[in-house]
Amino acid sequence: MGDELFVRDTPRSPTIRSRIDEAVRTSSPRAFTGAHGVPEQIVRVGIVVLNGANAIDFMGPIDAFNEASRSSTTPICYKIDLIAVTSGPIVGSSGVRMLSDKVIGPELDTFYDTILVAGGHELQAAEDNQHLIDWLVRSAPSARRICATCTGTSVLASAGLLNRRRVATHRDYTGRFAAMYPKVHVEPDRLFVRDGPYYTAVGGMAGVDLCLYLIENDCGRPTFFEVARMLVVFLRRPGNQPQISEFLKAQSIRNSQISHVMDWALTNLAGDLSVDALAKRAAMSPRNFSRAFMYEMATTPARFVEKVRVEAARILLETTELSIQRISHRVGFGSPANMRRAFVRAFQAPPAEYRHNADRPTAPAEYATVSEAD
């Protein structure tokens, strides 16, 4: 499943730990009493936004952490600072303007448990963000985790923080990123990746997926489900899921004959989806159907059908308690043995192990907490 899943977080600096403990001891009890009358653990999050970032790359995480703080299922309260790289309002890719809480500079010495860098539409050159890079290098050792979405990953790489580490970045930038940062290993076609204290996501909704993962690790599954429900998230997407769903790929087919057949196939996964059966529905010969399908999808019909069935089975494994045997029949594999072989090809793990890893409860994290006044 990859080591981006459910790994215990621990603080890495005894000095900072001492600072935190002292802040907690000397803080007012009132500062740690939440709306539900439960003592709160205040966890500071600094979200650094580069001009030109998509609003979802910073507003999505803000909303996710905010909903977690409102939950009655956890004592964790996230205190979020929106941090600009330069003075003045933050200008998003759509032109939306946001006032920041703080600005990167020598005077910004706030301790953050979690730092997230939200990138924009272009890979960031080191010389364009030297003061940000200096701040990250200075702040990283004391933070429990450092995160980046989209091209924000290039800022961490420019700072040398990702050398010899695995990262995820948007598929449009994978080649250029690998050429610019040869010491960083890019994981192709992943939503998000964790390597030690560094978390990188491809951007967009994957940034929300990453934050939901962090929230589940911090606060537990009940809070995760409550936040997901409030944000109307359809299903959990683990970090090792491909960036583009096989179902979405099927909806992009331009050949109307093949498109109609695949629309039917996606709602009849348990049916006969052999090349002969699909070609017959498209009123084409098997040879012409296969040739046209390969032109549209750059893969064979049989391989595509297997990928779609694997994705459907994965969703059922994560969201239901159906047995592996029932799932294998429901999605068209016909038997657990066939489904096992397909899962090993896709995830290097059989269905039972995949489900176990997806459902594994997380160990309580040691939170880096600070007082309200810090």
Walkthrough of the structure:
- By secondary structure, the chain is an alpha/beta fold.
- It contains 15 helices and eleven strands.
- It has helices at 14-26, 55-70, 130-139, 152-158, 174-180, 205-219, 221-230, 246-251, 256-266, 275-281, 286-297, 301-319, 324-330, 336-347, 351-359; strands spanning 41-49, 76-84, 90-91, 97-98, 102-103, 114-118, 145-149, 166-167, 185-186, 192-195, 198-201.
- The strands form three sheets. Strands 5-2-1-6-7-11-10 form a seven-stranded mixed sheet, sandwiched between helices. A two-stranded antiparallel sheet has the order 3-4. Strands 8-9 form a two-stranded parallel sheet.
- β10 and β11 form a beta hairpin.
- α6 (205-219) runs antiparallel to α7 (221-230) and α10 packs across α11.
- The longest helix is centred in the C-terminal third of the chain and has 19 residues, at 301-319.
- Which sequence of strands runs across the widest sheet? 5-2-1-6-7-11-10
Mean pLDDT: 79
Rough outline: globular
Radius of gyration: 23 Å
Helix percentage range: 40-55%
Portion in strands: 5-15%
How far apart the termini lie comes to 38 Å
Unreliable spans are 1-34, 238-245, 360-374
Number of helices: 15
Write a concise keyword list for the protein shown above.
374 residues, seven-stranded mixed beta sheet, two-stranded antiparallel ribbon, 15 helices, 43% helix
Write the layout of secondary structure elements.
Blueprint: H1 14-26, E1 41-49, H2 55-70, E2 76-84, E3 90-91, E4 97-98, E5 102-103, E6 114-118, H3 130-139, E7 145-149, H4 152-158, E8 166-167, H5 174-180, E9 185-186, E10 192-195, E11 198-201, H6 205-219, H7 221-230, H8 246-251, H9 256-266, H10 275-281, H11 286-297, H12 301-319, H13 324-330, H14 336-347, H15 351-359
Parallel strand pairs: 1-2, 1-6, 2-5, 6-7, 7-11, 8-9
Antiparallel strand pairs: 3-4, 10-11
Helix pairs in contact: 2-6, 2-7, 6-7, 10-11, 12-14
